[in-house]
């Protein structure tokens, strides 16, 4: 089956800056795909190339099998993009903005019932005749999502859709994107909220410094990670033994967080070592690695 | 929720509905601020007319049997056409770039030619609105029948088209409104003022008369004036030819910019 998005050896140079260094991967139809990376990793550049906003210096990107440059019409017809920034045309009402956007894609009055449905689904009906300038930030973001969907594209890219929105709206947007996915859309999500990618995405690509660092199923990512974490509350005089100290990755007064390597460091050895050194362990808590831990591990960057 | 993309729609070589939508949007944009985009230029032109009529009506006689006020009106109408056609495309594009909403147009399956046609068409509509209102107001000062209406219409459309395309180029190049103001203050204003709006170039010293013939705005105004009086400083065919050539050169530049994504698709 044709891939929803195919990225083939894409390079992008902005003067001396080599923003993308030969990135290649594919996204299958119907996937919920996460594209993660720190600031400056090249995610937005790659999305902009896919959307036709930026031209690749080298390589090729196709959407539903259509090259985004050579066959730009079917490629763009197949793609809906929710931009990262809240941008809008101040001259028009919400409904007009959606009808105009549908018109750009060749959709006429036949699209108007779908637009009304989108307004309803995104809880915008009461504001449909208002100027978009009068809406709150969250409402404006919903309008951006509706704009990306007016032509019913099979592939939808959401570039940090939940950045700066409140918890309730974030949950609403999560639910909405899940519904889109269930209805057959391919969803590509970029986000800085790793728990968001962990909760929503089936596969995740991690980019850093213009390169693809990892690309795996989310479950595999988490299970393959060789670490787990042990959080201890301890009480006692003296210093923590060196053998345990080297495992400490975070410390807060009497609380320690240790990173244990599977098959090498055991919880029992740690507890015994502390007891032998005269410490009393008052609380024990373990946790599996989150996507954030893996992300930091792969990118060596805490700017997630 | 999504439906398979219509393969016939995707295979189309043109997107007429998309082009029409963009054209309509651009027309609605200037109509939504009609006081600023149509009425204000008319008021400015009428003020010029009042002042120059008062000072020069009895002192200047450019063509036999044509009073100065009558001579002035077509020039002022064309000057307004020039300035408003330029303003429509340039301000719309620059504003969209600065506010960021240009992305919605760039996401769309519209070709360079379709974007060009929609923007330029809407600018010609605005320039025509200004011209018609100004001509009607001018009628209050002096009835001015058209001797060669086809020539006047052709010059209106061609001249508005030229400046609309020039505005498109300026809008693509400009990164902020300051850049646009530079185009207006250092090119559009001086070249339109020095093109024979207020005088016949025959009244100029030899050097400046010859220099004026290198100003394409002179042919726009002179050819437009021919439409009213049937006489002009340059032959009408010459004026039509020069303005058409100017349009074609500017159109090639603008289409190249749109096709390559110059300054808009990095």
Sketch the major β-sheet of chain B: none
The helicity of chain B comes to over 70%
Greatest interface and its residue counts?
A-B, 42 and 37 residues
Write down the CATH class of the largest domain in chain A.
Answer: Alpha Beta
Q: State mean pLDDT of chain B (0 to 100 scale).
A: 90
Question: What CATH architecture label of the largest domain in chain A applies?
Answer: 3-Layer(aba) Sandwich
Please write the string of helix (H) and strand (E) elements of chain B: HHHHHHHHHHH
In summary, what is this structure?
By secondary structure, chain A is an alpha/beta fold. Chain A has helices at 43-51, 72-77, 94-104, 112-121, 137-149, 167-182, 194-200, 218-224, 242-245, 267-276, 291-299, and strands at residues 5-14, 17-27, 32-36, 58-63, 66-67, 79-82, 155-159, 186-190, 203-208, 211-217, 227-235, 248-252, 255-261, 280-287. Chain B is an all-alpha fold and 266 residues long.
Descriptive keywords:
heterodimer; A: 304 residues; alpha/beta; Rossmann fold; Alpha-Beta Plaits; 2 domains; six-stranded mixed β-sheet; four-stranded antiparallel β-sheet; 14 strands; 34% helix; B: 266 residues; mainly alpha; 11 helices; 75% helix
Characterization of this structure:
- The complex is a heterodimer of chains A (304) and B (266).
- The model of chain A has no long low-confidence stretch (mean pLDDT 89).
- Chain A folds into 2 domains: 5-222, P-loop containing nucleotide triphosphate hydrolases (Rossmann fold, 3-Layer(aba) Sandwich); 226-288, Alpha-Beta Plaits (2-Layer Sandwich).
- Chain A has 11 helices and 14 strands.
- By secondary structure, chain A is an alpha/beta fold.
- Chain A has a 6-stranded mixed sheet, with helices on both faces. A 4-stranded antiparallel sheet of chain A has the order 2-1-4-5. In chain A, strands 12-13-11-14 form a 4-stranded antiparallel sheet, covered by helices on one side.
- Chain A starts with a strand and ends in a 5-residue tail after the last helix.
- With 266 residues, chain B is an all-alpha fold.
- Chain B has one domain.
- In chain B, 75% of the residues lie in helices and 0% in strands.
- Chain B is built from 11 helices and no strands.
- Chain B has helices at residues 7-11, 16-31, 34-56, 68-99, 102-106, 112-141, 149-173, 177-193, 206-212, 216-229, 236-260.
- The longest helix of chain B has 32 residues, at 68-99.
- Chain B is elongated and about 60 Å long.
- Chains A and B meet through helix 2 and helix 3 of A and helix 1, helix 2 and helix 5 of B.
